[in-house]
Amino acid sequence: MKYMVVTIKDVAKEAGVSPGTVSRVLSGQKKFYGPKAEAKVLEAAAKLGYQKNILASNLVKKKNNVIAVVISSVQTNFADSIIRGINKVASENNFDVIYTYTTSLDEGNQPHVIDMLTSRRVSGIVLASVILDKESITKIERADIPYTFVSITPENETRTISSDDVDIGYQATKYLINQGHRRIGLAGLDNQYYTGKRRFEGYKKALKEINVSPKKEWLFPGDYSYESGYDALKYYKKIQNVTAVITASDTCAVGMLNSATDNGVRIPEELSILSIDGTNLCEIARPRLTSVSQNFEEMGQQGILALIDMIKFKSTEISRKVIDVKIDERDSVKRI
Amino acid sequence: MKYMVVTIKDVAKEAGVSPGTVSRVLSGQKKFYGPKAEAKVLEAAAKLGYQKNILASNLVKKKNNVIAVVISSVQTNFADSIIRGINKVASENNFDVIYTYTTSLDEGNQPHVIDMLTSRRVSGIVLASVILDKESITKIERADIPYTFVSITPENETRTISSDDVDIGYQATKYLINQGHRRIGLAGLDNQYYTGKRRFEGYKKALKEINVSPKKEWLFPGDYSYESGYDALKYYKKIQNVTAVITASDTCAVGMLNSATDNGVRIPEELSILSIDGTNLCEIARPRLTSVSQNFEEMGQQGILALIDMIKFKSTEISRKVIDVKIDERDSVKRI
DNA sequence: ATGAAAGCGCTAACAC
DNA sequence: GTGTTAGCGCTTTCAT
C-alpha cells in the first residue's frame, strides 16, 4: 500500500483554511489563530495523517534542532555511559540527537563524516572520545557550528569536558603509594597523544613527592587495548621489578588479568593492578578491579549542556570543564 | 570569527556564471557544462568556502540519502559488530548513516525517535536489535519509508535479517548432547517474546531426538543480562540436576562464570556452560566460553543491503534472510 | 485572526 | 553548454 505524502497545502484544503493558518496552528503560535480554525486544522491533519517536513521547515527557519555526536568506533566500553548522559539532557532540552561513528585519525573517513554533518546544518557537534584532524575542525568552524570535545582532551583545545588527566595519573599513583607501593608500573598508555603524556606527568608528580624517580623499565606503553594489557603482564612478570601497575583503561586491565591467569601470576597477591576508567568491567572482572573512575555520564551531560548554551546564546566563550574522578576500591590492589 | 554562510548564488556571482551552472558543476553532471565554467566555479567555491546545503537539495530532489539505524540502548555488547557491518556497506554504496538510541518498548521514547526520523524523511530505517511498538511501525509505513529488522525477529515480521532462533536453540542443545550431556539447563531467556520461545523450541526439538523431555526445573528464565546469569548459577547449584547449561547471551554467561567463582563452583569441571552470541566476551572470559556464535557483522551488512535494495528499486518484496550460526569451541564445556 | 505572497537554497525543466 | 524560471514544503511578513 502506497501512501502519498501529504503537505501543508493538502491540510489547508481539507480544513478550508490557508496554508499560513495551518502552519501557525501546527507550530502552536497560540496568539495567531482562533479556536475554530485550530479545531479544523487539527482534525484535517489527523485525518490525512499529516507529518511535517522538518527539512523544509528548517530551511526557512535556518535552524535545525539536532545535535550530532561523533563517536570513535574504536571499541570503547564507556561510550554507553556518555550516550546515556547525552540523551538524557538533550531530550530534557528538546534537542534531537543523532550519532555517527568515525574511525580513528589515520583511517580517514573523518572528513566525510564531518561533511555530512556540516552540510546538513546540524546545530551542534559533540566529539565524544575522538581526536579530530585539523582539516575537520576547520570545516566545523567555517560552518560556524558550535562543538565541544568530551572525554578526550586534544592538546591546545579549550572547548572540552573531561577528567583532568594529570589528576588521574596523580591520584592513581598516590593511591598505590598509600597502599605501600613504591615501584609502580604504568601500562598501556600511548606516549604520543596528550592523554598519555598528561597521565604520565601526574604519575611522576606523585612519585616525586616521595622522592622516587620512575625507572624507564616501569613503563610499558601501548594503545589502551586488551592486548596491551595482555602483553604488559608478561613484561612485568619478566622484569620482576614492580609491585603494582596502573593500566591505561579497564579493557587493558582485563587483558592483564587474563594474562595473569594464563601465566600463573596471582592478582593481587603477586602483583596489584589499578585500572583507569571504572566502567562496569571492573565489577565483572575477577578479582574485581580497583579503579580510578571517570564519570562518563556526567561528561555527556555537561557536554550537551555546554553545547546547548553555545547554540542558544551564540556564546563563544571557552567551555573547558573538568569532571572529578574518584577511587573505587575493589579487590585488585593489595596493601603491602 | 564569524563566517557568513555562502550560497550557490554567491558562488555564481564570484565565478561569473549562473546559479544553475554552479549547481550542475557541483553535482558533477558532466555533460552539462564546459571545462572553463567548471574551473571558475570550482575556484570560486573553494575561495568562498562554499558548502552545499543538503537540506535544500533534498527538499527539491525529494530524496535523502541517509539511512537511520535505531539501536536499543539496552546494554548489548554486539552492537559494535552490527554497526561495523552497516557502516562498511553503507559507505560502499554512498549512503550516509545516522544512529539513534532508543529505550526498550515500555519506556516510551520510541514514538519520539521515530517521529524525528520520519519527519526528517530519512530514506530507510534499520531497526537493530529493537522491538518496536505497533504505533511506531505504523508511522514508518505511513511515511512510506523502507525498513528492516536486524538481529531480532519480532513475531509475524517478515522484513528481517537474523539468525534462526530455533536453529540456535537446536544447535546449542545438540552440541551439548554430542558432548555427552543429557540434563541440560536453559538460562536467562525471556519467555514472553519471540526469541525466547523460538530458542526453547529448538532446545526441545534436539532433546526430543534423544527421547528426553525437558524438566521444568531445568529452565531458569531471565532477561539476557549479567544478573540473570549470576542468579542462574546459584539456582543450578542448588538443584544439582543439570550437567550443562545454555545461556541466553554472552553477558549472561559471564554472569554465571563470576557467580561460579564467587560460589565455588568450578567451570567446566562441575558444570558446563555454552553461551549464545559469540562476541569477544567469549575470548576475554576465563575459562573462555564455548558458544553458538551469531554473525552480527554479516547481519548488519545484509540488513543495509536489503534496505538499499528497497530504496533503489522501491521493491516491496519480503526480505526475510537467515544468517547462519556456528559453534565456536573454547573451554567452558566439558565432554562427559 | 486569517489570507496572500515572498522566499529559504537548491535543482530541473525549458529555452536559446 | 548555459541562463532563466518555476517550485520543493514550509514560515513569516504584510495586509486586511
Task: Give the SSE layout.
The structure is a homodimer of 336-residue chains.
Chain A: H1 8-15, H2 19-26, H3 35-48, H4 54-61, E1 66-72, H5 79-92, E2 96-102, H6 110-119, E3 124-128, H7 134-142, E4 147-150, E5 160-162, H8 165-178, E6 184-187, H9 194-209, E7 219-220, H10 226-239, E8 244-247, H11 250-263, E9 272-277, H12 281-284, E10 290-293, H13 296-313, E11 321-322, E12 326-328
Parallel strand pairs in A: 1-2, 1-3, 3-4, 4-5, 5-11, 6-7, 6-8, 8-9, 9-10
Antiparallel strand pairs in A: 10-12
The first copy, chain A, binds a DNA duplex (16 and 16 nucleotides) through helix 2 and helix 4.
Gist of the model:
Two copies of one chain form a homodimer. With 336 residues, chain A is an alpha/beta fold. Helices cover 45% and strands 15% of the residues of chain A.
Structure in words:
By secondary structure, chain A is α/β, with parallel strands linked by helices. Helices cover 45% and strands 15% of the residues of chain A. Chain A is built from 13 helices and 12 strands. In chain A, the strands form 2 sheets. Chain A has a 6-stranded parallel β-sheet, with helices on both faces. In chain A, strands 7-6-8-9-10-12 form a 6-stranded mixed β-sheet, with helices on both faces. The mean pLDDT of chain A is 93. Chains A and B meet through helix 4, helix 5, strand 2, helix 6 and helix 7 of A and helix 4, helix 5, strand 2, helix 6 and helix 7 of B. The first copy, chain A, binds a DNA duplex (16 and 16 nucleotides) through residues 7-9, 17-21, 23-24, 27, 31-34, 37, 52-62.
